[in-house]
UniProtKB/TrEMBL annotation:
A molecular-function term among this protein's GO annotations: 3-oxoacyl-[acyl-carrier-protein] synthase activity
Keywords, in A-Z order: Acyltransferase, Transferase
GO biological process, one term: secondary metabolite biosynthetic process
Acyltransferase is among the record's keywords: yes
Domain of life, per lineage: Bacteria
Domain Beta-ketoacyl-[acyl-carrier-protein] synthase III N-terminal positions: 112-187
Protein name from the UniProt record: 3-oxoacyl-ACP synthase
Pfam families membership: ACP_syn_III (PF08545), ACP_syn_III_C (PF08541)
Length: 337
């Protein structure tokens, strides 16, 4: 018996901001016209009092609607990833388990993986279930930096502020043949890890008190490197998986990726020879969802009928400034009717 990704459920906050909301605060940021930060039409932002755990709980509620409350009783492994933890040091796993009323044998907060964390967590879930940790895993990702970091008074005038969106997603993974995980490729590029930085004006440590609001440290040189890494890494991991499962990239039924910007989405299509109709994204409505992008795009493709039972779906993405990339292929099994 193999390991299957049975279902994905998602949640997007009610607060929906148009691009014009940010243009009213436009400053003289030198990166304003950089393609890395061309704004989406809309994005969803978490409310001021909406935590990562709140959003995960709301995504789980959708899963329970489809599968019944007993689905949570079967969870042996809980994996969580918060793009911006609600509290420093503390991950979301313990509170999520408490809110859901479950007591799994394994609760693991997966901090690394970034925008490709869903792929990394799927690999970890498969490894744990194959190793005898149980029969069912719940993997949960959440992102609320849009409504917390990028709406701050100083930060919202920066070019980068108009791109991030918020949301949450959960995946149900079981030992079964229903929707088999065909293969997974994860690659680490530790030499790039220090290129992801937090900046303030005036400069200070992220944990130190001070007047400057924190934001992601970008400049033209760093952007060029990040784009080059993303252009290269995502096609590489997709091709590695395709080679092992015996499918050409152009013949994939659906590709779902993280969505940093329109430029990378287009470049990945061209590099892999994939028709844009077979690469689902929600960038125009959600912006850059970071780790939540892959499952939200998967869910959207299923809901719209772009993915049907038997289709091979490739999930792929890269993280941070290019220190991690991953791809996973699943033969979709359909949802309960």
């Amino acid at each position: 018996m193999t390991v299957s990704l049975i279902d994905i459920a998602t949640y997007l906050p009610e607060k929906r901001l148009p691009a014009a909301w940010f243009t009213q605060f436009s400053g003289d940021d030198d990166l304003r016209d950089n393609p890395m930060f061309r704004p989406p039409d809309f994005r969803h932002h978490a409310a001021a009092d909406e935590s990562n755990v709140d959003m995960i709980e709301r995504a789980v509620a959708v899963l329970v609607q489809r599968h019944g409350p007993q689905v949570l009783d079967e969870v042996d492994v809980l994996l969580t990833h918060s793009q911006l933890p609600d509290l420093p040091i503390l991950g979301a796993g313990g509170e999520v388990a408490h809110r859901l009323g479950i007591n799994p044998e394994w609760i693991i907060d997966v901090h690394n993986g970034g925008c490709a964390a869903f792929v990394l967590m799927l690999k970890l879930a498969r490894q744990l279930l194959d190793g005898g940790a149980g029969r069912t895993a719940l993997i949960a990702v959440a992102q609320n930096a849009g409504g917390t970091i990028f709406e701050q008074e100083q930060v919202r005038a920066k070019a980068q502020a108009s791109v991030p969106g918020d949301g949450a997603a959960v995946g149900l993974v079981t030992r079964s043949d229903t929707a088999p995980v065909l293969d997974i490729e994860c690659r680490y590029y530790g030499e790039n890890a220090t290129d992801m930085t937090l900046a303030t004006d005036p400069p200070r440590r992220w944990w130190a008190a001070g007047p400057g609001e924190g934001y992601v440290g970008f400049n033209e040189g760093k952007i060029i490197k990040v784009l080059a890494r993303g252009n290269r890494q995502v096609p590489q991991v997709v091709r590695a998986v395709c080679d092992r499962i015996g499918v050409k990239p152009a013949d994939l039924d659906m590709l779902v990726t993280n969505q940093p910007n329109r430029l990378l989405l287009r470049n990945w299509n061209e590099a892999l020879g994939i028709d844009p109709d077979h690469h689902r994204d929600t960038f125009h409505d959600c912006g850059n969802l970071f780790a939540v992008g892959i499952p939200v795009n998967f869910d959207a493709a299923v809901r719209d009928g772009q993915v049907t039972p038997g289709d091979i779906v490739m999930m792929a993405g890269f993280a941070h400034a290019g220190d991690f990339a991953g791809a996973a292929a699943v033969r979709w099994g359909g949802r309960p009717t």
